[in-house]
Design brief:
The protein is of the alpha/beta class and 301 residues long. It has two domains: 197 residues, no CATH class; 62 residues, no CATH class. Helices cover 27% and strands 31% of the residues. It contains eight helices and twelve strands. A hairpin with a 2-residue loop joins strand 10 and strand 11. The longest helix is centred in the first third of the chain and has 15 residues. The radius of gyration is 21 Å and the shape is globular.
Length: 301
C-alpha cells in the first residue's frame, strides 16, 4: 500500500468516526507530552496541562503549567488507564504535543502502541515523535522557558529541523512509512548540561542525531553528520546550516537547493549569514564540507 493511500484512508476513517465523546473540556486532563518506556510492560509518564500551576483558569507563564503523572500496564491503553489523577478528570489525548519513545523498543515492536495512540486514544496524526534512551527523562525536566514543559523540547526539535540537522517526524509518518515497508528516521534527545538557564537544576537535553525505526524496532543510532546524509539521500531536506573551514578560519553559511546528482554526488547553492554570496574560495570549501557530510552514509534509506 502506498504512503499516500494509507494517509488518505487514515484521514477518512477519522472523519467518518466523528466524535462520540462529549465530555466537557473542563472535565478533562489535557496531556501535553507522553513518554513511553517498555520493560515487559508499558511505563508511561505524562505531562498534564495545569493552567496557572494551581488550578486557575488562565495561563500564567511565570507558574508551573504542567504536572507529571505516571502509569503502567500490559498494554499502552491499560498503562494510561492506570494513571492516577487526584481530581478524577478524564484524560484527553487529542491535544498531545509530543510523543517520546524510550527504552525497551530495541526488542519490542512499537506499532501496537502507535496504533492505540491513533485508533483508541485519538492522538493527532500530526503529533511530533522523538526518541531517547529513557523517555521519562523529558518529563522529569522543569524547563524555565515556554508556557509548559512540553514547549521547550518542541521548540528545540523545530529549530534543529530548520537548521537542517534533524528530521521532523510525525505519527502519520511512522504509520505510513511502516505500511510502505520503509524505515523511519526519528530525532533523538540525549542528556545534557544546562549552560543557558533552561532549567534550575542544570540538567537538560539536546537534539543529537537520530535513530532508525525499522519493522517496529528502534535500531541504529546516527550522529549529526550521518543524519544529515540520510536526510539528503532521502530528499527530506534541501537546506542546511553549514560550518566549514576556509583560509584557516571556521565560517558558517546556509546551503539551499541541495540536490543529488545522477552520479551520486551533491550540489547546492550557498549564502552567508547575512544572505549575501560566498567568495569562490568559500563556496569551494563549503561544497567540500557538504560533500564530506553526504558521503558519511551515501545511500538511500
Amino acid at each position: 500500500m502506498s504512503t499516500k493511500i494509507l494517509a488518505g484512508l487514515i484521514l477518512l476513517s477519522s472523519l467518518l468516526s466523528g466524535c462520540s465523546d462529549m465530555t466537557e473540556l473542563g472535565n478533562r486532563a489535557i496531556i501535553q507530552a507522553l513518554a513511553i518506556d517498555y520493560d515487559g510492560e508499558y511505563n508511561v509518564s505524562a505531562l498534564l496541562f495545569s493552567s496557572g500551576g494551581s488550578g486557575g483558569d488562565t495561563i500564567d507563564a511565570s507558574q508551573e503549567n504542567a504536572i507529571k503523572v505516571v502509569g503502567s500496564g500490559k498494554t499502552l491503553c491499560e498503562a494510561i488507564d492506570n494513571i492516577s489523577l487526584a481530581d478524577g478528570k478524564k484524560l484527553y489525548m487529542s491535544e498531545t504535543k509530543l510523543l517520546i519513545l524510550g527504552g525497551g523498543f530495541e526488542q519490542t515492536d512499537v506499532f501496537p502502541a502507535l496504533d492505540s495512540l491513533y485508533y483508541d486514544l485519538r492522538c493527532s496524526l500530526n503529533m511530533p515523535v522523538c526518541c531517547a534512551d529513557r523517555a521519562e527523562l523529558l518529563t522529569d525536566l522543569d524547563f524555565t522557558e515556554g508556557m509548559t514543559s512540553a514547549d521547550k523540547p518542541l521548540s528545540m526539535l523545530e529549530n534543529a529541523h530548520e537548521l537542517g540537522i534533524s528530521p521532523k517526524t510525525t505519527l502519520l509518518d511512522l504509520l505510513a512509512e511502516n505500511a510502505a515497508g520503509k524505515p523511519s528516521l526519528i530525532p533523538m534527545f540525549v542528556p545534557d548540561k544546562n549552560g543557558r538557564g533552561m532549567t534550575e537544576s542544570g540538567d537538560t537535553i539536546a537534539v543529537s542525531g537520530s535513530r532508525y525505526l525499522k519493522d517496529g524496532i528502534l535500531t541504529e543510532k546516527f550522529d549529526r553528520d550521518k543524519t544529515v546524509s540520510l536526510m539528503i539521500s532521502s530528499k527530506k531536506i534541501d537546506r542546511l546550516s553549514l560550518n566549514f573551514n576556509c583560509g584557516g578560519y571556521e565560517k558558517t553559511c546556509f546551503a539551499y537547493g541541495i540536490k543529488r546528482t545522477p552520479d551520486d554526488k551533491v550540489t547546492a547553492n550557498f549564502k552567508n549569514k547575512n544572505g549575501g554570496p560566498l567568495t569562490k574560495e568559500e563556496e569551494t570549501a563549503a561544497l567540500y564540507e557538504l560533500s564530506r557530510i553526504y558521503n558519511t552514509m551515501g545511500k538511500n534509506f
